[in-house]
Amino acid sequence: MINTSDYSGEEDPISAIKRFVHENGHSLLGAVAAAGGPCAHQNCLQLFCDVAQAQRLTRTMRTEFKHFQELLTLAEADERRPECLNDHDLEAIDQMAVQLESLLQRVGPDRGPIDIGNMLTKRA
């Protein structure tokens, strides 16, 4: 296995994501549910399960976090948002969008280890 990680932070990306979910998961789940409804809520729960079991941050997980960040950003700015969102909901959505953006910047692009043996086996 070749480790291509050049992560310069204090913790690796999956550890940062797991810590974020542990500390902010309830708030993220509430903001996503308010902004995106039941389907987004279910997708967020699934992402939490995937993160809990992961050894490294995958591109799919990163993409899901980015989608949630975009959903929250759009929900906060959208003039057609549902009437059920009050000022408290909008503030929570806005704060979580900012926190997700910060998290995604901290963990950077996907630079996990590459298992060349596994890649070669699949091609053979």
Question: Could you please describe the fold and organization of this structure?
Answer:
With 124 residues, this protein is an all-alpha fold. Helices cover 72% and strands 0% of the residues. The protein has 4 helices and no strands. The protein has helices spanning 13-53, 59-77, 87-107, 116-123. The model is unreliable at 1-9 (pLDDT under 50).
Short description:
With 124 residues, the chain is mainly alpha-helical. The protein has helices spanning 13-53, 59-77, 87-107, 116-123. The chain is built from 4 helices and no strands.
Q: Can you tell me the overall shape?
A: globular
Order of helices and strands: HHHH
The helix content is over 70%
Cα gyration radius (Å) = 16 Å
Distance between the termini: 18 Å
Uncertain spans, ≥5 residues at pLDDT below 50? 1-9
Report the sheet with the most strands, covering strand number, pairing sense and barrel closure: none
Query: In what range is the share of β-strand residues?
Result: under 5%
| Count of DSSP-assigned helices | 4
How many beta strands in the DSSP annotation?
0
**Oligomeric composition of the shown chains:** single chain
* Class inferred from helices and paired strands: mainly alpha
Give the overall average pLDDT: 81
Helices and strands, with pairings:
Blueprint: H1 13-53, H2 59-77, H3 87-107, H4 116-123
